[in-house]
């Protein structure tokens, strides 16, 4: 079963994604875009990922009025792992493992 | 879905064999997509409590790794439908460039084919497609082969990840609430390859942290995207 709320979310997200794919694909032979603008588009994912990560780190809530150091250590480990392995998957695996271990201590 | 290019791509592919050849060319990339899809399925189950059909429907109709992780994150933050639509569009904005590039390389085909072929534009199909197009015109069968293999890998891994995720009952205890932050951090760092990328990321961090205070997640994503876009336009 699919809830009606989530069905709407999926339809909206599918339409938003399709809008990034179809029009430029179908009209490519008629559209001219300057190299500067093309390069700008290639940088957009960097901005989006940074914007999704930064506020969650910067505004991470305290636990019982104290800073949750486990969270910030896990951020550091995930960043270093990603840097070394060049893999989002490994960043996720090591980050989750570290924070889980530190929370159990 | 990170970009990667097979080195085994050769020239002059007959269209009938194009599908099979593309399947082989894209296979290593499809494997990396599979590992990523496992993470999506597990998170959809544990963190967002989707049903299996909701997970499969999202993977089938949205078919965007980074976009779907973003949606999971936004749903957890009770984001509005507008925030989800804008964020999904922004995170997938690179497909505009892929579409422009692939559309020019594509061999003549019926206009109706473009309707379904556009849905299978991904980092992976773009990577092998553009390399193939350097040697000869990109055939429908070749592009279909690359796109459909990645599509199947994404759907199957979403299902497998969902089933694996069902074995874990307390996500916070196992640190799964941190998975989003870690995954996006990993995606971000994987994209940083030159000085202007770091500048774009730094400005996006500042812009998003400031914007988040006033306009929440959607505004933060928009501010970050605009900051990076401007750096991209200005960089040489």
Describe the structure.
The complex is a heterodimer of chains A (105) and B (236). Chain A is mostly helical. Chain A is built from four helices and no strands. The model of chain A has no long low-confidence stretch (mean pLDDT 89). Chain B has two domains: 161 residues, no CATH class; 45 residues. Chain B is built from ten helices and no strands. In chain B, helix 3 packs antiparallel against helix 4, helix 4 crosses helix 10 and helix 5 runs parallel beside helix 7. The longest helix of chain B has 40 residues. Chains A and B meet through helix 1, helix 2, helix 3 and helix 4 of A and helix 1, helix 2, helix 3, helix 4 and helix 5 of B.
List keywords for this structure.
heterodimer, A: about 100 residues, mainly alpha, 4 helices, about 75% helix, about 0% strand, B: about 240 residues, 10 helices, globular, disordered N terminus
